Amino acid sequence: MIINSIRQAFGETLAKLGKTNKNIYVVNADLKSPLFLNSFAKKFPHRFIECGVSENNAAGVAAGLAKTGKTVFLTSFACFSPAINWNTIKQSICYNNSNVKIIGSHAGLLSTDLGATHQMLEDISLMRSLPNMEVFSSLDALETEKITKVITFSKKPAYLRLVRPTTPNLLNPKLNFTIGKSHILKSGKNITIIGHGPILEEAFQVQAKLNLDDKYKKISLEIINCSSIKPLDTVAILKSVKKTGHLICLEDHQKNGGLGEAVASLVLSSNFPCKFIHLAVDNSFGRSAKTYQELYDYYGIGVNNLLTAVKKILLK
Predict the structure, then answer these.
(1) Residue 217 resides in a domain
(2) pLDDT tens-digit profile of 238-267?
(3) In a domain, 15, yes or no
(4) Is 179 in contact with 283 (CB distance < 8 Å)?
(5) DSSP run (H or E) holding 223
(6) Which pLDDT tens digit goes with each residue over 68-111?
(7) The domain containing residue 128 runs over which residues?
(8) What is the pTM assigned to this prediction?
(9) Which of 89, 90, 261, 271 has the most crowded Cβ, counting Cβ within 10 A?
(10) Are 171 and 139 in contact (CB under 8 A)?
């Protein structure tokens, strides 16, 4: 069965891992069903701890369990964790370099009708800033399974960003996930498109549109999935930028503190001559809509916005 739900892939993978790894514990903040944790909770009730709507307490419990040698998954919506309990994560988890994996679901504008209160657009920024914290963002359900398995065997604190809706599977199943490495989803020679999460599907749609345009049909995009945001795959990014000389970063997140700023800092500090455009939410809160495509268009990160950016960067 092909799973297209990133949340479902996470929950089912964790349940499978729990069978062979009795060291895995889950600390939840009253969001068991939305994160597909029912199976884990039913099979391993003594390793599933429900803290209720008390995110700071949940982070403290997770930190305490980690100090006893457990591998702990702290699960909630991103708008609650890490948004509400960030200071507890900083002091109790990161400062102690504890083995806690913070899972923030329903991130970005993809939460559509849940509106501004639940569309967490600052989580990458919050977690990138923390010492010892590694930050990851799943491209699709396939990669979610791979990332979950890998971080289970890492002893470092980690944050994994998940989204609400079902999304297309874009990753080649044969590719493995490695912390600090990115994947080139499509090779190209003219423009590097880098991003994280399901929004990268737009780059393939833009390439298809370019192929139908006589003026731009020879333009090829190099699409890079940067699911490991911290640590960053500096080698692959700089190699691509050196080849294309044009870089567009696309993300469903605030411009402030997101992947785009990390990549821009990398390119500038490396003295690479590069034309750069960052497409992200620009200092705004989210809002409700019937579809996330409406929101992407409204905030300037939709398919047509990316197509316009591609044509604009070629003229710079």
Answers:
(1) yes
(2) 999 999 999 999 999 999 999 999 999 999
(3) yes
(4) no
(5) strand 221-225
(6) 999 999 999 999 999 999 999 999 999 999 999 999 999 999 99
(7) 6-161
(8) 0.96
(9) 89
(10) yes
